[in-house]
Amino acid sequence: MKRVLSLALVLSLVCGLSLSCKKDKGGQKEEDTTVPQIAWESNSSFAEKEIAPGLEAEVSIASVNGLSVLSIEVSVPVTLVSQVNNYIGISSNKGTSSKNAVIDLVGDEVAVTALNLMGVTRGGAASYAGSKSLTIDFAALVNAIILNQVLDNASKFSFNITATDTEGKTTKKSVKFNWTSAPEITVPSSDVSAAAGKASVTVNANGLVEALTVTLAGDVRAVAEIADRTSSKSGVIDLIGDSANAVKYFSFPAASSISGKKSVTLDFSALILLIEPKLSSSITVTVFVSDQFGKTATESFRIIP
Question: How far is CA 164 from the centre of its chain?
């Protein structure tokens, strides 16, 4: 019995003094704070985010021992692979239709320089080898990649970060984005005759409608006829914020049939019937829509006497 107790005592002392023994806190091992840390302050869970105005995606990387590896594996729609390759100097790291590109921030001076110039990273170094702290702005990176590019709705983007320190300790995180196409508005392709009395507009919004307005400008008497029937007393009909008047006077759909919907059809027959007796010159009708992500669309058509 004494032998058993002595052995237990020795082991407890060794564990207490050894740096390799980790304290137990409620059944969980204490975290090794020397492992590289990757944090997204505004999105600690690293949940997928929508690419939209106001996107914030600054990710901080910290390493007590300094970095020996810092790479970003980039997964984008195949049509954008060549765009990503523009930022890469090492041929073997360039992406193809079947292989993701890799941005090496330690061994690829071209990649580091490109990201610094775009404001994705901040610093004039040619490499982040040995770096103990830096920030990567993934919003700036993804916006640079998609600039002037045509994207399909629901396009996915993934940036897989690998950070390894000089002691071989590694941390990995993925920054993910989704692209929802901006709304689309289909208006009459030619001038609408008030005498005909008919016109319709279709609004499609993959991101769901959040705001929808119809603005009239031109013939003063016709616009006044509309303004008298809106809460704002202007030529702007707010189909969601002023739904009661939009339904009562212009027979547009109720707010409940517009807000949060993907598709809305507007029949302008009632509006045309109302302004036709007053119309002596053309009137321009502008339809504006904004979705839940702040993406917008605007289209116009004319109503003529």
Answer: 28
The region, left, alpha or beta by phi > 0 then psi within -120 to 50, assigned to residue 99 is beta
Per-residue pLDDT at 29: 65
Task: Enter the pTM of the model.
Answer: 0.82
C-alpha–C-alpha distance, residues 105 and 168, integer Å:
17
Q: Are 136 and 37 in contact (CB under 8 A)?
A: no
301 in helix, strand or coil?
strand
Residue type at position 7: L
Q: CA-to-CA distance for 72 and 199, rounded, in angstroms?
A: 51
Burial status of residue 203 (CB atoms within 10 A of its CB: 0-12, 13-18, 19 or more):
buried
pLDDT digits (tens, 9 = 90+) for 222-250: 999 999 999 999 999 999 999 999 999 99
Per DSSP, the three-state class of 245 is helix
